[in-house]
Amino acid sequence: MYPKKNKNKYFFSLLILVFICFFCACQSSQNSESISQKNQSNIIENIFQPTKNTPPTLWNYPQKDSVGYVFYLKKRYNAKNIAPIKAKELEKWSKELEKKYNISFKTHTYQKYFNIAYRCTDAQRNHLEYVSKVFFKDTYQKYFKYEPKNPFQIVYFANKDEFVKYTKSSAYGFYQPSTKTLFTYTGSGEGTLWHELMHAFVDTNIEHNIQQWFSEGLASFYEMGGISNDIFLEGYTNWRQPLLIKMLGKKNNLPLDIFLEEEEMSEDDAYAKARFLFCYLWINNKMISFVNAYLYELSAQYKGKELTKKTIDKIEKLLGKNLKTIEKEYNELAKKFIPYQKLQQIKN
Ligand SMILES: [Zn+2]
User: How far, in Å, is the centroid of ligand 1 from the Cα of 256?
Assistant: First the structure.
């Protein structure tokens, strides 16, 4: 599911627990930032001015810090003040979680934006930290323009039973925009974490709605990856590939232009179709340009049929061919690949 800034949709989403994740629909908390600069004694300087056409709550990523200063949540802090701020944040959050679930969590913060509340071992927590740090380092800046406007909160339950008991979800994990929190558990797999983190990254960057095929296509592209020498490796098919091949063989398979028009995907196993669109763009080395254009230009300005038309125009322009040809290539490539296959990227 993809994020809609609408509360009713969110509660509806809570009922649909069969998806790998749900991206619920809640009013995105407009960070009103009402505390005046003067009252923030620990803020040494705040020299930033929003660039033209940039909402004042968003700051370009990465903000450069001079020695001894750290940029965090729209402000620049003296580096020595960050630790107590994070400690306070964790204390407040863990109290909220304990009140909600009536169980205790250990908490930990890293890379200034990640806060985790966990019930696994410290070794498991360290692994979670490592795979999320590398993922952030190697993906965030490719697709996203802005500094996160909220910390990435991860609630990590000890095991599946505990996760199901407390979240009432049968998924591997989910991201909840209303609380800016990702919920998952030990053993749910790194792919789940990366999928849900991608939703969190999108959520902190845009305020408007996006179509589900985009949200889930991008997130599920990152369900499959690896890390070698501290580098995130991407560009693989996964377990969804046979589902896609089955879909493409069906008589009622939606053509690409109709698929791209849907706000929410109507076909069974549509995640597989959305995912492979991103694989196709990745193979053609156009995924970054497309994601940037869709997030910050197309979906920010257009809706409905107009958005679909602009999206198709963009895809055709980026690939230098019409949608019919693209669809033919997409179908042929989809049938060629087996699950968990490394894709080869065209260099251009
Ligand atoms: Zn998802």
Answer: 20
Residue found by looking up tokens 């250990």 in the block: 106
Q: Facing residues of 184 across strands?
A: 156, 173
In which domain, by residue range, is 143 found?
Answer: 7-28+42-209
pLDDT in tens, 215-225: 999 999 999 99
On whether residue 14 sits in a domain, the answer given is yes
| Domain finish residue from 168, 192, 209 | 209
Instruction: Using the 3D structure, point to which of 170, 187, 209 is the last residue of a domain.
Output: 209
Task: Give percent helix, percent strand, percent coil of the chain, each to the nearest 5.
Answer: 45, 15, 40
**Ligand 1 midpoint to CA 88 (Å):** 30
What is the Å distance from ligand 1's center to 119 Cα? 23
Q: How many domains does the chain have?
A: 2
Which pLDDT tens digit goes with each residue over 200-247? 999 999 999 999 999 999 999 999 999 999 999 999 999 999 999 999
CA 97 to ligand 1 center in whole angstroms: 23
Ligand 1 centroid–CA 3 distance in Å is: 9
Here the tokens at position 162 are 């505990």
The residue to which tokens 């908490």 are assigned:
107
Which pair of structure tokens corresponds to residue 236? 């693989």
Summarised one tens digit per residue, pLDDT across range 249-302 is 999 999 999 999 999 999 999 999 999 999 999 999 999 999 999 999 999 999
Q: How far is the CA of 217 from the centre of ligand 1 (A)?
A: 8
Q: How many angstroms does the Cα of residue 166 sit away from the middle of ligand 1?
A: 20
